[in-house]
Each structure stands twice: as C-alpha cells, then as structure tokens.
Amino acid sequence: MSRSPDWMPQFNWPVFGPFLGILATLLVVGAVVGVRLWPGGDNVAGTPILSVDGTNPDRDAPLPENPGVGGPALQPPGARDARIRSLPARVSGTPGVRAGPGTQYPGLHQLKDGDEVHVIACSPGCEWLRLFSATDPQAQHWVPAVFLTVAGRVDSLPVLTPQ
Length: 163
Description:
SH3 type barrels
C-alpha cells in the first residue's frame, strides 16, 4: 500500500465515502429530472412534457384507431361489472364453498378465516350468499351467510333461487 505524501491531507473514506456516493446520486437524479421537466426537454417518449407556452401537447391528442389490449387480461369479460355491484365481506371461520345455496350441492373448496370475498347475490331469505369469482363470473360459489361479515346491506343484493 502506498503512502500519500506528507503535504497531502488524509481522507477518511469510511466516514466520508458514503456521503460522496449520496451526493453523486443526488446530482445525477437532479440533472435527469431537470432535463426531463425543462420545456423542450425529452421525456421517455421523446416528446416534450410541456411545450414552451406551458400546455401539454399529449392531453388533447386524438386516440389511436386501434389502441391494442394493453397487457394481460386479469379478468374475463363481464367480470368488472359483477365486482362493481358486489359487497365486500370478511370470512369468519373456515366455511366450505358449494356449487349451490344448500348442503345438498357439492363442495368446491374451503375458505380461510380472514379472507376477503365479494358477495354478488343471496338466496331467498339471504341464508346463503353467492360469491364473485374472478376466474369465471358465471360460476356458482355459495357460502352460508353466518360465516361472512358483509360491509353493506345484504338485502340490497339480487335474490337468486336455486335451479
């Protein structure tokens, strides 16, 4: 290890090194943000964020003819509408989910204590509640109402009779 000349001051890297790293990072980030926000600067798309007169040129631009799908579809068609008309509920205990509103219907799976579900309908008398399924909005998933704490009025849900 070479020793610095006596006239050169010693630098304490363990103490001041991290501060220099932070300072360099702040300078780089400040330069990038300054260039991107400056009128006429380039943003990711290569167009100015604000024009010289302070307006946003992209805000009033017409939409493309075919905007594409925009990424993977997380919900099947119609699923969003069903979720909008649902009531959130919290599961108490470990109830079994059935294919219909009653114990005579086959069991599908079991819920866990504390799970959050969305209720979309109830049986006559609201003893059984139908749950929303993100994978299949037409699926029949029913749970006894005593296992769910529903946020909202259950009597506002549509009543479905068993088929």
